[in-house]
Amino acid sequence: MKFTLSWLRDHLETDATLDAICAKLNVIGLEVEDVTDRGRALTPFRTARIVEAVQHPDADRLRVCQVDAGEGFESVQVVCGAPNARTGLRVIFAPPGTYIPGSDITIKTGKIRGQESGGMLCSLRELGLGAESDGIAELPEDTLPGQSYAAFADLNDPIIEIAITPNRGDALSIRGIARDLAAAGMGTLKPWLAETVEGTFASPLNWDLQYPEACPFVLGRTIRGVRNGPSPDWLRARLEAIGVRPISVLVDITNYFTFDLGRPLHVFDVNKVAGPTLSLCHGGRETFRALDGRDYVVEHADLVIADASGVQSLAGIMGGEGTGVDDDTTEVFVECALFDPVRIALTGRRLGLHSDARQRFERGVDQALPVAALEAATAMIVELCGGEVSEVVSAGAPPAWERTAHLRFARLQDLGGLAVAPDDAVHKLEKLGFAIRSRDETGVTVAVPPWRNDVANAPLLDQGSDLEATRAAQAAEGVVAIEAECDLIEEVLRLVGLDAIPPVALPQARVVPGAAYSPRQVRSAATRRLLAARGLLETVGFSFVAHETAALFGDVPEGLRLLNPIAVDLDQLRPSPLANLVAAVARNEARGQSRVDLFEIGPVFGAEGQALVAAGVRSGHAPRQPGRGAVPVDPWDVRAD
Predict the structure, then answer these.
(1) CB-based contacts of 170: which residues, under 8 Å, 6+ apart?
(2) Which residue in 117, 210, 502, 567 has its CB near the most CB atoms, within 10 A?
């Protein structure tokens, strides 16, 4: 997750230095991976004006420029090969001794084809800020010579990159990071409230929600009369700073809110949508071309957004080329929805499709934010693109995200190892957005904020035949209560600082217990020694194999096939270790091993459950014996084992 210091300060009122902010981020569990200060590297570069540019007397493609770069460089001669170098142009000047990051050179005073040159006029690419160009950078005509270019271009804005753990989806937004820093004492979180934009007409597009398990709630509205095109400089600069390529103002606005509020959005070109309805439904093995230009086949479990002509978006992951906006777009439909994290993750993983939207949806987004986010995006679109706004259309209902968690103050010491005053603990939870529901001398009950999907969420329990529904519900409730309290303890301790927890040595045991082996362990050890004595080498293989391979070695119930395998060729629990051993023998023989004898003792899986099995394979020639030459192994050799 990348963000700039100035962007952070849009949400955080603070006077803290960059170093202090980075140190605090590390303390509260948002590990700083990198800090890039572009302004420091560009300190020597100045704004300048070409006073005069004349043709080089000895080179057709060079021009001799007299440059005014401010105090100390009022009249400098520079030989320049850019075709756009001309009298009166405002440019970027690098004095002698300046390191050029885009070209990896250091400027020196010298002669070029017999003419003195005391510096360099630069392109943005040479500063490491832009793509290839045919000439030097052209600054606005009213630019004063002698300014620091870094300050002129607002590049004195450090870029911070932090690592986000999978449970902290709320920290994939700049406002979420600011909230954590404010709670840790680094300033005050600025209030944010989206202004309501009243619609003036009925939206020509509506929702048809056919897959509520994957999308419980969706909003949208039409904005007509918009003007798409390049984004304003401030928006382009912010996106470029964090590594997002600006595309057009409509697309850039959706990307802006993805990072600013952690709220992915999507815009459809209304004139490219077939019919009056967008359906959120199952995929049907259609081929869909995404905005990355690649084709994907959507399966039944995938959630798609389709119009009368077919799939137009892989919901929560990436939109499609067919209804994407372009420079001719004049009417858009803005989508804002809540998607099921598990289904988004499974679809993205199966297709190998990564996006900023998927990263946020599969970790969980703020479930109370869709209405406000749609209003905020609408307001920015109208401000930057103009247009007339429709009424909001929706389908489904907001999920019941409200939940509570209870913290016993004594558990901070018992479980966390640190005594924290009850008032301090309550204050820190309130700063993080937890609302107090009740409190007594022993503990406090808080309401969990909608952006903290990692706190007090019900786990998925395996409700087997031996665990009826009532007992399963009771067990789930107990687990939630225990885990929620642990979550609250973690929140308090990370704001206090884990370094504040005093180290305590583990008690030393007075006796050393003897080894205790189960009958199964005894048999496994004996079998292992026996097979090793017979000359076989032990292997340890995956418990997973390819479905097609597993079918060659026994029954492969569909219930033992993995939905989210670690690799496409490891999608079935194995029915026999032989599936792994035969593959290992083949690999060794392919590498020139003429004799391969292997065994494995490991688990196998079938319809009746799991078992521990020993299996072995011999290949090549049998061991030589007196009076007999080298002969291939046969079943009798294996039977002798």
Answers:
(1) 176, 179, 262, 364, 366, 451, 452, 453, 454
(2) 117
**Rg (alpha carbons) of the chain, rounded to whole number:** 33
Question: SS3 of 471, please?
Answer: helix
| Integer angstrom CA distances of residue 630 from 353, 588, 594, 597, 624 | 54, 20, 12, 15, 6
Q: Mean pLDDT over residues 117-145, rounded?
A: 87
Q: Among 216, 210, 259, 212, which Cα is nearest to 239's?
A: 259
54, with CB counted inside 10 A (0-12, 13-18, 19+), is exposed
Pairing state of beta strands 443-447 and 572-573?
unpaired
Bridge partners (DSSP) of residue 218 are 337, 395
Contact (Cβ atoms closer than 8 angstroms) between residue 269 and residue 324:
yes
The predicted model scores a pTM of 0.74
The predicted-structure confidence for 204-241, as pLDDT tens digits, reads as follows: 999 999 999 999 999 999 999 999 999 998 999 899 98
455 touches 448 (CB < 8 A) = yes
**DSSP strand E in 248-378: where?**
266-269, 277-282, 287-289, 295-297, 303-307, 310-314, 318-319, 331-338
Count CB neighbours of 139 within 10 A.
20
Whether residue 466 is predicted with pLDDT greater than 60 in this model: the reply is no
Here the tokens at position 456 are: 């007090």
- For the chain, the straight-line distance linking the first and the last C-alpha, in angstroms and rounded, comes to 58
Average pLDDT over residues 40-63: 92
Could you read off the pLDDT of 79-97 as tens digits, one per residue?
Answer: 999 999 999 999 999 999 9
**CATH numbers and ranges of domains, the chain:** 2-37+158-189 (3.30.56.10), 41-152 (2.40.50.140), 206-396 (3.50.40.10), 404-464+471-499 (3.30.56.10), 519-640 (3.30.930.10)
Q: What are the distances in angstroms from CA 320 to CA 218, 292, 306, 439?
A: 18, 8, 10, 51
pLDDT of 470 reads 46
Q: Which of 80-84, 191-195, 354-358, 625-629 has the lowest mean pLDDT?
A: 625-629
What secondary structure letter does DSSP report for 84?
Answer: T
Locate 624 and state its tokens: 């030589």
Tell how strand 537-538 and strand 596-606 pair up: parallel
Residue 206's nearest CA partner among 5, 394, 439 is 394
- Tokens 């230095």 locate to 17
- β-sheet bridge partners, residue 166: none
Instruction: Give the whole-angstrom CA distance, residue 137 versus residue 148.
Output: 15
C-beta of residue 136 within 8 angstroms of C-beta of residue 123: yes
Q: Measured over all CA atoms, what is the biggest interatomic distance in the chain, rounded to whole angstroms?
A: 101
Helix/strand/coil for 466? coil
- The residue to which tokens 């009424």 are assigned: 391
Q: What is the pLDDT of residues 251-260, one digit of tens each?
A: 999 999 999 9
Rounded Cα distance between 308 and 274, Å, is 5
Alpha helix ranges (H) inside 184-248: 233-241
The alpha carbon torsion through 281, 284, 290, 296 (nearest 10 deg) reads 140
Amino acid identity, position 388: E
d(CA 476, CA 480): 6
CA gap 20, 67 in Å, rounded: 41
| Closest residue by Cα to residue 454 from 409, 486, 414, 498 | 486
Tokens in use for 603? 């688990």
